[in-house]
Amino acid sequence: MAAHRSRSRFAADRGLTTRMVTTMFFIGLLYVVFVGVLVALLSNAWPFILVIAGGLFIAQFWFSDRIVEYSMGARVVTPEEAPELHGAVDRVCALADMAKPRVAIANSDVPNAFATGRNERTALVCATTGLLRRLEPEELEGVLAHELSHVAHRDVAVMTIASFLGVLAGLITRATLWGSVGRAGRNGNAALLMILIPVISAAVYAVSFLLTRLLSRYRELSADRAAALLTGRPSALASALTKVTGDMARIPTQDLRKAEPYNAFWFAPAFSSRESLARLLSSHPSLEKRLEQLGRISAELARP
Prior knowledge:
GO terms for molecular function: metallopeptidase activity. The chain is mainly alpha-helical. The chain has one domain. About 65% of the residues lie in helices and about 5% in strands. The longest helix is centred in the C-terminal third of the chain and has 42 residues, at about 190-230.
C-alpha cells in the first residue's frame, strides 16, 4: 500500500478551497471573539475558560473521526467480511490514485454513506446495510467516489472542526455559568451575566451554523461533480441519488430521527418530517439541483 499522497486524481475545486478557507477564517475569528468576551465578562475565571476551550478544541481535532464513527454505528470490516464493498472501494481508490481508507459498515436500514478522518491516513468510508442492499455496483461506486472526494479535498476535517465551534460555544457557556455566576453574584453582576452569556452564545451558534450550512451545500455539489468526472458515469450517481432520496420516505420515522443529527456527514440527508424546518436549512442542496448538475456533466462528457 502506498504511503500518504498529497494529491489525487479527483478534480481540483478552487471554489471549494476558497470557501473552506473563508469559512474557517470567519468561524475562527468568531471563536476568538467569543472566548475574549467571556474572559472580559468573567475576568476571575479566565484560566478556567481558556483551559476548557483549548482542551475541547484539541480533543475534537484529534478524536473527531472516532466520535463520528461511534455516534453513527460504524464497524470496520475486513475484505473477507464485505468483499463487494471492499472491491468497490479498491476500484475507486485505483481510479483516484489515493490510499485506501478504512472500510466500515453501519447496521441501519437508512440507505446512506459517509466519510470521516482528518486526512487520508486516518480516513474511513462507511456504507449502511440499507445502502448496500439497494444499490447496483456502479451506483455504489458513484456514492463511494462522492465520499472519497470529501477525503481527498479535506473538507471532511474542515466541516467537522467548523461545526464543532458552534457546539463549543454552548459547552463553554454552560461551564462558565455554573462556575462563575455564584462569584459574580457577590458583585451584583449575576443577573447581567445570566442575560448576556446565553445571548452571546446563541449569536455565535447561529452565525457558525449559517456559515457551515453554506459551505456544506457547496461541498456536496463539489463532491458530486468530482465523483462524476472521476468515474465517468454521472448517470450512475444520479440513479443512486434518486434511489436513496426516494427510499427515505419508506424508512420508519424512528430510524430517520436517529440519523437526522448527522445529516452534515451523510451522502443524502435524512429527514423525519416532510415539513421539517431542517429542510429549509439543510446541509445539502436539493435533489433537483444535484441532478441538474449531473445532467450537465453527462452532456459535457458526451460531447466529442
